[in-house]
Design a protein that fits this description.
Elements lengths: L3 H9 L4 H8 L3 H9 L38 H17 L2
Helix pairs in contact: 1-3, 2-3
Length: 93
Amino acid sequence: MPTREQLLTLLGEGHTYESAARAVGIPPGRAYLIATGRPADGNPAPPSAPVPGGEAPSSPQRLVGPPAVNPTVREDVLAWVRERAARELGSLS
């Protein structure tokens, strides 16, 4: 487990919480928690003190959990769904 000092050094060298976390092999939300003492998931935190490593992310909650995914359209899947729906609708007649 990385120490607060290790993370503060990386942040002081210009790393973001994401790149600092990658460098030490932990999730970005955990790096934020270790460096700041504040949870990144939006839970209330103690009164604000300056955030180590410069500015806090605009929304530290983005450091928690997997990134949002916008799947691409797959024509083969759409064709299968159309064919299946046509079969189902045909069996209702």
